Amino acid sequence: MPPKRKTDSPAKAAPKKKRSSAVDDAPAASSSKATASTTKAKASSSTASTSKLTKGKSKKKEPVVISSSESESADSDVIVESPKKAKKASSNSKGKGKEEKPKSTKPAKVASKASKSSKAYAYDPVESTSTPGPESAPKPPAKSSKAKPVAKPASFEEAFPRFFATYAEPEDEGTMGGAGIEKLFEAMELSMDGAYPMILAYKVEAKPGTFGTFSRADFRRAFEPTKIASAPQLKDSLLAVHRQLFDSEASEEDFRRFYLFLFPFLKSDGAKTIPAEMAIPLLGISLGERYELGKAFVDFATAQGTAFKAVSLDVWTQLLEFCQSVEPDLTGWSEDDAWPSTIDAFVDWKKGQESTA
């Protein structure tokens, strides 16, 4: 019986196992590296995709190619190709055990619109509530180094001749006639139906018998002290005199001087009376504006019609005394008083009006 072949000793087989183990371990290590690389590549690819979805772009994922030799030898290499952008995303995902869920793109769009809107109105002074810094605040326009010359007001000596010439008669520069007076009152926006024409005549101290005209000499003498040389200035002066004469607290003496000035000014040269058609309206703008009895006398004179022909200087003067001393209900009047017959006729008419009322 032939002897049995002895198996190799364990001592000699050991080196083969070591060699075999080294060879066998190479594929395992290579496989382990490939698996790890694949895991990293997937994680980086997933993170990169998540980053791209967050930005709202729909790009396709770039393929990841893993190559290894079929022989799984020790010289086999694992090549992992991944986009560069994925590396940045993977660096942000270090230390996280789980992959983050992709964020919705709608909030990102809203935020983007909001940011655009804020940029669009960054410099809107109404919408912006922030206080601009010294650099961003608008700078005031640079002032011109040369100051504009301020026109000096014309002196009275320069302005008055032009002022009076505007309303003077074409053939007589020293006289203002009826047309010029009307033009002047239109410029002052004052009515000629009231007391203002008489106040102007009183102010310039017009000479008796010159009703309807004004002289340049009278205007200059009256208005040079106050430097009145324009229509607006003259209007203010006439309004002030009107208040001085007709306000409730106006002086009786001031009104007396004005009233007594009117008769010689209105009376024609050489005449002793003023005709009714002139006297009645003038009594209405003087006594009628100041006293209740004066207004009643105007009504009486108008009611007489053609029977009331004129007013004498005595009646004109005594009417003022009557209005200042007798009450509207005729208290203070007596039959023994020596009033002109015209005033006595007025008292009888007024009593008759009161008895029939």
Q: What are the main properties of this structure?
A:
disordered N terminus; 357 residues; two-stranded antiparallel sheet; mainly alpha; 55% helix; 6 strands; Recoverin, domain 1
Question: What string, H for helix and E for strand, traces the elements in order?
Answer: HEEHHHEHHEHHHEHHHEHH
Oligomeric form? single chain
Coarse shape: elongated
CATH superfamily of the domain at 155-264: EF-hand
Q: What are the segments in which pLDDT stays under 50 over at least 5 consecutive residues?
A: 1-83, 85-128
CATH architecture of the domain at 155-264: Orthogonal Bundle
Pfam family, one: Cullin_binding
Function: Neddylation of cullins play an essential role in the regulation of SCF-type complexes activity.
Domain DCUN1: 155-351
Protein name: Defective in cullin neddylation protein
